[in-house]
Amino acid sequence: MTILSSEPTSTFLRACHGLPTDYTPIWLMRQAGRYMAEYRAIRAQHSMLDVINTPELAAEVTLQPIKAFGFDAAIIFADILPPLIGMGLNLEFVKGEGPVIYNPLQGPADVAALQTPPAAETMPATLEAIKLVVAELGQKTPLIGFAGAPFTLASYAIEGGGSKVYAKAKALMYREPKAWHMLMEKLVTVQVDYLLEQAKAGAAVLQLFDSWAGLALGVDDYIEFVQPHNRRLFVEIAAAGVPTINFSTGTGAYLDEVAACGGAVVGVDWRVRLDEAWEMIGWQRPIQGNLDPIALLTGWDQLKARVDVVLERAARGKAQGGVSHIFNLGHGILPNTPIENVQRLVEYVHEQTS
Amino acid sequence: MTILSSEPTSTFLRACHGLPTDYTPIWLMRQAGRYMAEYRAIRAQHSMLDVINTPELAAEVTLQPIKAFGFDAAIIFADILPPLIGMGLNLEFVKGEGPVIYNPLQGPADVAALQTPPAAETMPATLEAIKLVVAELGQKTPLIGFAGAPFTLASYAIEGGGSKVYAKAKALMYREPKAWHMLMEKLVTVQVDYLLEQAKAGAAVLQLFDSWAGLALGVDDYIEFVQPHNRRLFVEIAAAGVPTINFSTGTGAYLDEVAACGGAVVGVDWRVRLDEAWEMIGWQRPIQGNLDPIALLTGWDQLKARVDVVLERAARGKAQGGVSHIFNLGHGILPNTPIENVQRLVEYVHEQTS
């Protein structure tokens, strides 16, 4: 539990600080997204990068799910990859293919050539969008700022896009450990500055997304090639004075090592049992998660049964001393999710926990 | 340790039975493959399915790595997916894209329509190839037969190909559990018959490949939707009277539940520490694994350091009562692996453990 000069009043922020709440707050990763008709209407006219780079559009899209579903937190509409553009990588979101980097890093010389310009110069639209959203939301609904974790960004930068086995990224990591660590350091420098700027612009909480480390790396490699960098990142963003969330996937076998990197809150994927994960993380840390996003593609009875499991495991954790639970998915919401399920999920979690 | 009427003499078979060996046997998953020029020469003239369906070609390709590197076991050249063709699925290996199923399963009616014909009718070429290879190899180098685990096959059959989040497969599993279990039962029926026929044709060991369950499912879903079927499979293939290997990936957080399905030997991926995995599996079970395939893309010093970690962890396991270690990768060898590294790896593992 953090010592605060004045206790926050919003449920989500209180939960992030490990303070008692009247009910379990809920938000969903990728909650501003394709499953909403309002979002698809905007994206029909604007590319992904256009929406991100136009503060008014990014703000509008960020607010859509808050208005529609009453989530307890908003998350700024953006993507983890655009900070790579400022570093010198030529990124595009290709329809049907996802992100493509046309000049992926091939070795130490490419890493050495990467720039680390300040976010104020490279990401002004996202910072401006944060200001617009915060002005609109006021105090009741906090806004989450976020960034990609260095491993996930490094993998994209080396692979040039998505990957199955991360062969290029890991081969560079194994063959050229010095270049790897330099790359991670540069990414941490850029991401720390970006996250601090997001907090300055009004983000009340900062989440780090490490979607790939757990799928790509065993625990020994995680400890050697990732942990020191994530740890430095969490130490340095503490200067923002806001709670931080450390989210990763595929790390169920070594959540203790993930938690050791830092983060006020630890976010877990749907592969773990919430109470067992909480025990690995430590009961004094708030936990976020962990409904399987695919549960939202079923009927209400089946969805409810899976929500109940998460809530029961959260209650079991609290009975053992666990502080706060923030309800979320274990990964991003899928584009073909029926909105009725989202509506009922939010109502049900609030009802059952108040 | 199994009670045998006469003890096997080959190192690999002895290790599968948990019997003492003069050195640690080694083979590599996908050892007949693109990293070998001899293999590429054959594939330049024949498609994947052609090679599988021509016993002489499949046998030739199977023997290539034995002749080149002296592995302690051969594995029949085949693929996990062709048994789906006989069940009614229209499968093709598309260049650059991988396997595609043009009529993926969309619901209970499609599952009900699936056939379960005997392997003698649907997979005669692979069974014939096994006979050719065994005749060539004699007793010294045992031949491994194999099949895909029902979850991995079910996912392919529903997704129609590879997948990132297994949304279709899992949505069917969650929404239509009866159809899911019927699908798994049909797959087990087909795979049991196929594996028994492979043993009859001369396969000395049978390996089950579950490449996807651990990436797609948390432990509770694994126990509900996968475990009973894998267990039935291992119970029924015991009739073959040969050792079995239970291999999966991404299951590091619940290897105990994987091991509980059966298999004389348990194969583990590169994400786990070998000795810790062994403890979860139980020291009385032989363990197979677990070098990261990407380690083979580095120079010898770096590769050697990683091989040493595997050997040291195996030795640590043996010191605690672990029976046999079979050296292998944690997943298939990559196409761009330098053959010098494979050569040195085999020699080094034999040297260091004898």
Describe this structure in words.
2 copies of one chain form a homodimer. With 354 residues, chain A is α/β, with parallel strands linked by helices. Chain A has a single domain (11-353), classed as TIM Barrel. Helices cover 50% and strands 11% of the residues of chain A. Chain A has helices at residues 11-16, 37-43, 48-53, 55-69, 83-87, 108-113, 119-122, 124-137, 150-159, 167-175, 177-201, 213-216, 219-237, 255-259, 274-281, 300-319, 339-353; strands spanning 74-75, 91-94, 98-101, 143-148, 205-210, 244-248, 265-267, 287-291, 325-329. In chain A, strands 1-4-5-6-7-8-9 form a 7-stranded parallel sheet. A two-stranded antiparallel sheet of chain A has the order 2-3. At the A-B interface, helix 10, helix 13 and helix 16 of A face helix 10, helix 13 and helix 16 of B.
CATH topology assignment of chain A: TIM Barrel
Instruction: Give the H and E element order of chain A.
Output: HHHHEHEEHHHEHHHEHHEHEHEHEH
Number of domains of chain A: 1
Count of helical regions of chain A: 17
Helix content of chain A: 40-55%
Structural class of chain A: alpha/beta
Largest sheet of chain A: 7 strands, parallel
Mean pLDDT of chain A: 96
CATH architecture descriptor name of chain A: Alpha-Beta Barrel
Shape of chain A: globular
Using the CA coordinates, give the radius of gyration of chain A: 19 Å
Name the pair of protein chains with the most residues at their interface, and give those residue counts: A-B, 35 and 35 residues
Assembly state: homodimer
Number of strands of chain A: 9
- Report strand % of chain A: 5-15%
Query: Could you name the CATH class of chain A?
Result: Alpha Beta
Uncertain spans of chain A: none
| Alpha-carbon distance between the two ends of chain A | 21 Å
Can you list the strand order of the major beta sheet of chain A?
1-4-5-6-7-8-9
